[in-house]
Amino acid sequence: MTPNYDILIEKYLSGNVTPDEEELLGKYLQENPMQESEVMLSEKAMIGQRIKSKLFKSTIGKHSGRVWLWLPAAAASVLLVLGLVWSFFPKERGYFAAIASVLSDKEEGFEVKNTSRKPQRLTLEDGSVVILQPNSRISYPEHFGDRKRMVYLHGEAFFNVKRDPAKPFIVSTENLATQVLGTSFHVKSYDGAGSIEVQVASGRVSVYEVSERRQASRNGFILTPNQKIVFDKESRKMELGIVKNPTMVKPVESRQRFEFSEMPVSEALTMLEGIYGIDIVIEGDVLKNCLFTGDLNDLPMFEQLDLICKSVNMEYERRGTSLFVYGEGCP
Known about the structure:
The protein has seven helices and 18 strands. By secondary structure, the chain is of the alpha+beta class. The chain has two domains: 5-242, Jelly Rolls; 259-327, 3-Layer(bab) Sandwich (Phage tail protein beta-alpha-beta fold), CATH 3.55.50.30.
Protein backbone atom coordinates (compact mmCIF):
# COMPACT_ATOMS: atom_id res chain seq x y z
CA MET A 1 0.00 0.00 0.00
CA THR A 2 1.41 3.40 -0.98
CA PRO A 3 1.51 5.62 2.14
CA ASN A 4 0.00 9.10 2.12
CA TYR A 5 3.19 11.07 2.73
CA ASP A 6 1.30 14.33 3.09
CA ILE A 7 -0.54 12.87 6.10
CA LEU A 8 2.73 11.51 7.51
CA ILE A 9 4.30 14.97 7.25
CA GLU A 10 1.33 16.50 9.07
CA LYS A 11 1.59 13.87 11.81
CA TYR A 12 5.31 14.50 12.19
CA LEU A 13 4.90 18.25 12.45
CA SER A 14 2.21 17.76 15.13
CA GLY A 15 4.40 15.29 17.05
CA ASN A 16 2.07 12.30 16.57
CA VAL A 17 4.19 10.18 14.23
CA THR A 18 5.07 6.62 15.28
CA PRO A 19 8.66 5.28 15.07
CA ASP A 20 7.73 3.08 12.08
CA GLU A 21 6.07 6.01 10.29
CA GLU A 22 9.07 8.26 10.99
CA GLU A 23 11.43 5.63 9.55
CA LEU A 24 9.20 5.22 6.48
CA LEU A 25 9.03 9.00 5.94
CA GLY A 26 12.78 9.39 6.43
CA LYS A 27 13.45 6.72 3.77
CA TYR A 28 11.03 8.39 1.36
CA LEU A 29 12.63 11.81 1.82
CA GLN A 30 16.11 10.40 1.18
CA GLU A 31 14.91 8.94 -2.11
CA ASN A 32 13.14 12.16 -3.16
CA PRO A 33 15.59 15.08 -3.20
CA MET A 34 12.98 17.74 -4.01
CA GLN A 35 11.29 16.97 -0.71
CA GLU A 36 14.40 17.51 1.39
CA SER A 37 12.73 20.36 3.24
CA GLU A 38 10.67 17.86 5.20
CA VAL A 39 13.61 15.83 6.54
CA MET A 40 12.88 14.72 10.09
CA LEU A 41 14.90 16.08 13.00
CA SER A 42 16.50 14.09 15.80
CA GLU A 43 15.26 14.19 19.37
CA LYS A 44 18.30 16.19 20.45
CA ALA A 45 17.57 18.81 17.84
CA MET A 46 14.07 19.11 19.26
CA ILE A 47 15.60 19.67 22.70
CA GLY A 48 17.84 22.27 21.10
CA GLN A 49 14.74 24.03 19.70
CA ARG A 50 13.29 24.35 23.19
CA ILE A 51 16.59 25.73 24.49
CA LYS A 52 16.62 28.22 21.62
CA SER A 53 13.12 29.37 22.62
CA LYS A 54 14.37 30.00 26.14
CA LEU A 55 17.26 32.02 24.71
CA PHE A 56 14.81 34.20 22.80
CA LYS A 57 12.79 34.79 25.94
CA SER A 58 15.72 35.47 28.26
CA THR A 59 17.89 37.59 25.98
CA ILE A 60 15.62 39.30 23.45
CA GLY A 61 12.67 40.14 25.69
CA LYS A 62 9.89 42.26 24.26
CA HIS A 63 11.95 44.31 21.80
CA SER A 64 14.66 43.01 19.50
CA GLY A 65 15.54 46.31 17.82
CA ARG A 66 19.09 47.56 18.52
CA VAL A 67 20.11 44.21 19.92
CA TRP A 68 23.78 45.09 20.11
CA LEU A 69 23.17 47.89 22.64
CA TRP A 70 22.29 45.49 25.42
CA LEU A 71 23.95 42.33 24.15
CA PRO A 72 27.04 42.61 26.44
CA ALA A 73 24.80 42.68 29.50
CA ALA A 74 23.10 39.45 28.47
CA ALA A 75 26.21 37.71 27.20
CA ALA A 76 27.01 35.97 30.48
CA SER A 77 23.65 34.24 30.76
CA VAL A 78 23.64 33.27 27.08
CA LEU A 79 27.15 31.83 27.24
CA LEU A 80 26.24 29.90 30.37
CA VAL A 81 23.29 28.22 28.64
CA LEU A 82 25.29 27.53 25.49
CA GLY A 83 28.11 26.15 27.61
CA LEU A 84 25.75 23.67 29.24
CA VAL A 85 24.40 22.70 25.82
CA TRP A 86 27.94 22.22 24.50
CA SER A 87 28.76 19.93 27.42
CA PHE A 88 25.68 17.75 27.34
CA PHE A 89 25.19 17.53 23.56
CA PRO A 90 28.67 17.42 21.99
CA LYS A 91 27.39 15.72 18.83
CA GLU A 92 24.90 18.50 18.18
CA ARG A 93 27.38 21.40 18.13
CA GLY A 94 26.58 22.10 14.48
CA TYR A 95 22.96 22.76 15.41
CA PHE A 96 23.81 25.25 18.11
CA ALA A 97 26.07 27.11 15.73
CA ALA A 98 22.78 28.09 14.10
CA ILE A 99 21.45 29.39 17.41
CA ALA A 100 24.46 31.63 17.87
CA SER A 101 23.54 33.51 14.71
CA VAL A 102 19.86 34.00 15.59
CA LEU A 103 20.29 37.45 17.13
CA SER A 104 20.34 40.28 14.62
CA ASP A 105 20.19 44.05 14.57
CA LYS A 106 17.05 44.21 12.41
CA GLU A 107 14.37 46.53 13.74
CA GLU A 108 11.72 44.71 15.76
CA GLY A 109 12.48 41.29 14.36
CA PHE A 110 14.59 38.16 14.28
CA GLU A 111 16.84 36.61 11.67
CA VAL A 112 17.52 32.88 11.93
CA LYS A 113 20.44 31.42 9.99
CA ASN A 114 20.91 27.67 9.64
CA THR A 115 24.69 27.22 9.65
CA SER A 116 24.45 23.53 10.50
CA ARG A 117 24.47 20.60 8.07
CA LYS A 118 20.91 19.51 8.82
CA PRO A 119 17.46 21.02 8.22
CA GLN A 120 16.24 22.77 11.38
CA ARG A 121 12.72 23.22 12.68
CA LEU A 122 11.42 26.62 13.79
CA THR A 123 7.98 27.34 15.26
CA LEU A 124 6.71 30.88 14.68
CA GLU A 125 4.54 32.97 16.99
CA ASP A 126 1.29 31.94 15.26
CA GLY A 127 2.08 28.21 15.46
CA SER A 128 3.29 27.89 11.85
CA VAL A 129 6.25 25.53 11.42
CA VAL A 130 9.27 26.19 9.21
CA ILE A 131 11.85 23.54 8.27
CA LEU A 132 14.87 25.64 7.32
CA GLN A 133 17.48 24.05 5.06
CA PRO A 134 21.27 24.43 5.57
CA ASN A 135 22.82 27.66 4.26
CA SER A 136 19.42 29.36 4.45
CA ARG A 137 18.09 32.19 6.56
CA ILE A 138 14.68 33.59 7.43
CA SER A 139 13.66 36.96 8.91
CA TYR A 140 10.36 37.72 10.63
CA PRO A 141 8.90 40.32 13.04
CA GLU A 142 8.72 39.82 16.77
CA HIS A 143 4.92 40.02 16.48
CA PHE A 144 2.86 39.63 13.31
CA GLY A 145 0.63 42.55 12.35
CA ASP A 146 -3.16 42.69 12.39
CA ARG A 147 -3.55 42.25 8.62
CA LYS A 148 -0.81 39.88 7.47
CA ARG A 149 2.01 37.54 8.54
CA MET A 150 5.14 38.39 6.57
CA VAL A 151 8.45 36.49 6.56
CA TYR A 152 11.53 36.93 4.35
CA LEU A 153 13.40 33.90 3.03
CA HIS A 154 16.87 33.59 1.52
CA GLY A 155 17.51 29.97 0.62
CA GLU A 156 15.21 26.98 1.01
CA ALA A 157 12.48 26.04 3.47
CA PHE A 158 9.33 23.97 3.92
CA PHE A 159 6.36 25.80 5.49
CA ASN A 160 3.40 24.30 7.33
CA VAL A 161 1.23 27.37 7.91
CA LYS A 162 -1.33 27.73 10.68
CA ARG A 163 -4.65 28.71 9.11
CA ASP A 164 -5.88 32.23 9.85
CA PRO A 165 -8.33 33.70 7.27
CA ALA A 166 -7.92 37.17 8.78
CA LYS A 167 -4.12 37.21 8.34
CA PRO A 168 -2.66 35.89 5.07
CA PHE A 169 0.80 34.34 5.45
CA ILE A 170 3.28 35.74 2.92
CA VAL A 171 6.77 34.43 2.15
CA SER A 172 8.79 37.12 0.40
CA THR A 173 11.84 36.14 -1.66
CA GLU A 174 14.06 38.09 -4.03
CA ASN A 175 11.50 38.33 -6.85
CA LEU A 176 8.39 36.44 -5.77
CA ALA A 177 5.78 36.50 -3.03
CA THR A 178 3.98 33.32 -1.96
CA GLN A 179 0.68 33.97 -0.15
CA VAL A 180 -1.55 31.51 1.72
CA LEU A 181 -4.09 31.34 4.53
CA GLY A 182 -3.07 27.91 5.78
CA THR A 183 -1.31 25.16 3.87
CA SER A 184 2.06 23.46 3.38
CA PHE A 185 4.53 24.26 0.63
CA HIS A 186 8.21 24.36 -0.30
CA VAL A 187 10.15 27.45 -1.43
CA LYS A 188 13.62 27.38 -2.97
CA SER A 189 15.20 30.80 -3.53
CA TYR A 190 18.97 31.01 -3.06
CA ASP A 191 20.79 34.28 -3.55
CA GLY A 192 22.67 34.18 -6.84
CA ALA A 193 20.59 31.32 -8.30
CA GLY A 194 19.00 31.87 -11.69
CA SER A 195 15.51 30.77 -10.65
CA ILE A 196 13.02 30.49 -7.80
CA GLU A 197 10.88 27.39 -7.26
CA VAL A 198 7.67 26.91 -5.27
CA GLN A 199 6.03 23.50 -4.74
CA VAL A 200 2.68 22.86 -3.05
CA ALA A 201 2.11 19.92 -0.70
CA SER A 202 -1.42 20.79 0.47
CA GLY A 203 -3.97 23.57 0.08
CA ARG A 204 -3.81 26.41 -2.43
CA VAL A 205 -0.97 28.88 -2.87
CA SER A 206 -0.91 32.20 -4.70
CA VAL A 207 2.51 32.93 -6.24
CA TYR A 208 3.12 36.29 -7.89
CA GLU A 209 5.99 38.48 -9.01
CA VAL A 210 6.94 41.33 -6.70
CA SER A 211 6.69 44.77 -8.34
CA GLU A 212 7.52 48.22 -7.03
CA ARG A 213 4.56 49.69 -8.88
CA ARG A 214 0.94 48.98 -8.01
CA GLN A 215 -0.65 46.98 -10.83
CA ALA A 216 -4.19 45.96 -11.71
CA SER A 217 -2.93 42.50 -12.71
CA ARG A 218 0.08 40.55 -11.48
CA ASN A 219 2.37 38.03 -13.12
CA GLY A 220 1.40 34.96 -11.10
CA PHE A 221 -0.61 31.76 -10.66
CA ILE A 222 -2.68 29.83 -8.15
CA LEU A 223 -1.04 26.48 -7.35
CA THR A 224 -2.77 23.38 -5.98
CA PRO A 225 -1.25 20.18 -4.47
CA ASN A 226 1.45 18.45 -6.56
CA GLN A 227 1.93 21.55 -8.70
CA LYS A 228 5.06 23.69 -8.86
CA ILE A 229 6.21 26.91 -10.47
CA VAL A 230 9.71 27.88 -11.60
CA PHE A 231 10.42 31.58 -12.03
CA ASP A 232 13.38 32.57 -14.23
CA LYS A 233 14.91 35.74 -12.77
CA GLU A 234 16.46 36.93 -16.03
CA SER A 235 13.53 36.40 -18.42
CA ARG A 236 10.95 36.98 -15.64
CA LYS A 237 8.92 34.06 -17.00
CA MET A 238 7.02 31.53 -14.91
CA GLU A 239 6.84 27.88 -15.88
CA LEU A 240 4.09 25.71 -14.42
CA GLY A 241 4.71 22.03 -13.85
CA ILE A 242 4.18 18.91 -11.76
CA VAL A 243 6.37 18.06 -8.77
CA LYS A 244 8.92 15.27 -9.19
CA ASN A 245 7.17 12.85 -6.80
CA PRO A 246 3.41 13.55 -6.49
CA THR A 247 1.71 12.45 -3.28
CA MET A 248 -1.90 11.39 -2.77
CA VAL A 249 -4.26 14.29 -2.14
CA LYS A 250 -7.42 12.20 -1.89
CA PRO A 251 -7.53 9.38 0.68
CA VAL A 252 -8.86 6.04 -0.52
CA GLU A 253 -10.47 3.67 1.97
CA SER A 254 -9.69 0.36 0.25
CA ARG A 255 -6.32 -1.18 1.19
CA GLN A 256 -6.24 -2.73 -2.29
CA ARG A 257 -6.73 0.60 -4.06
CA PHE A 258 -3.99 0.00 -6.64
CA GLU A 259 -4.76 -3.64 -7.43
CA PHE A 260 -6.45 -3.81 -10.82
CA SER A 261 -8.12 -6.85 -12.36
CA GLU A 262 -9.36 -6.51 -15.95
CA MET A 263 -10.17 -2.86 -15.32
CA PRO A 264 -10.71 -0.56 -18.32
CA VAL A 265 -7.54 1.51 -18.69
CA SER A 266 -9.53 4.73 -18.99
CA GLU A 267 -11.05 4.03 -15.55
CA ALA A 268 -7.64 3.25 -14.04
CA LEU A 269 -6.29 6.57 -15.33
CA THR A 270 -9.34 8.41 -14.01
CA MET A 271 -8.67 6.83 -10.63
CA LEU A 272 -5.06 8.05 -10.62
CA GLU A 273 -6.24 11.48 -11.70
CA GLY A 274 -8.56 11.77 -8.69
CA ILE A 275 -6.12 10.37 -6.11
CA TYR A 276 -3.21 12.61 -7.10
CA GLY A 277 -5.22 15.66 -8.20
CA ILE A 278 -3.47 15.82 -11.59
CA ASP A 279 -5.35 16.18 -14.89
CA ILE A 280 -4.75 13.22 -17.23
CA VAL A 281 -5.88 13.84 -20.82
CA ILE A 282 -6.30 10.85 -23.17
CA GLU A 283 -5.89 11.34 -26.92
CA GLY A 284 -8.99 10.19 -28.81
CA ASP A 285 -10.73 6.92 -27.93
CA VAL A 286 -7.79 4.56 -28.49
CA LEU A 287 -8.24 3.07 -25.01
CA LYS A 288 -11.87 2.22 -25.59
CA ASN A 289 -11.39 -1.57 -25.43
CA CYS A 290 -8.19 -1.74 -23.34
CA LEU A 291 -8.04 -3.52 -20.00
CA PHE A 292 -5.36 -3.55 -17.32
CA THR A 293 -4.46 -6.12 -14.66
CA GLY A 294 -1.70 -5.52 -12.12
CA ASP A 295 -0.68 -4.59 -8.58
CA LEU A 296 0.67 -1.03 -8.42
CA ASN A 297 0.72 -0.66 -4.64
CA ASP A 298 3.89 0.84 -3.10
CA LEU A 299 4.94 2.42 -6.41
CA PRO A 300 5.37 6.18 -7.06
CA MET A 301 2.72 7.74 -9.26
CA PHE A 302 4.87 8.09 -12.38
CA GLU A 303 5.94 4.42 -12.18
CA GLN A 304 2.28 3.45 -11.90
CA LEU A 305 1.49 5.51 -14.97
CA ASP A 306 4.47 4.03 -16.86
CA LEU A 307 3.30 0.46 -16.28
CA ILE A 308 -0.29 1.19 -17.28
CA CYS A 309 0.75 2.96 -20.47
CA LYS A 310 3.30 0.35 -21.53
CA SER A 311 0.76 -2.45 -21.07
CA VAL A 312 -1.45 -0.93 -23.77
CA ASN A 313 1.21 0.48 -26.12
CA MET A 314 0.76 4.08 -24.95
CA GLU A 315 3.03 6.90 -23.82
CA TYR A 316 2.57 10.11 -21.87
CA GLU A 317 4.17 13.52 -21.67
CA ARG A 318 3.95 16.43 -19.25
CA ARG A 319 2.22 19.53 -20.49
CA GLY A 320 2.30 22.17 -17.77
CA THR A 321 0.28 20.84 -14.85
CA SER A 322 -1.41 18.12 -16.96
CA LEU A 323 -0.40 14.74 -18.35
CA PHE A 324 -1.18 13.89 -21.99
CA VAL A 325 -1.56 10.18 -22.85
CA TYR A 326 -1.20 9.18 -26.48
CA GLY A 327 -0.31 6.21 -28.71
CA GLU A 328 -1.71 3.34 -30.74
CA GLY A 329 -3.55 1.66 -27.91
CA CYS A 330 -4.19 -2.07 -27.46
CA PRO A 331 -4.70 -4.36 -30.50
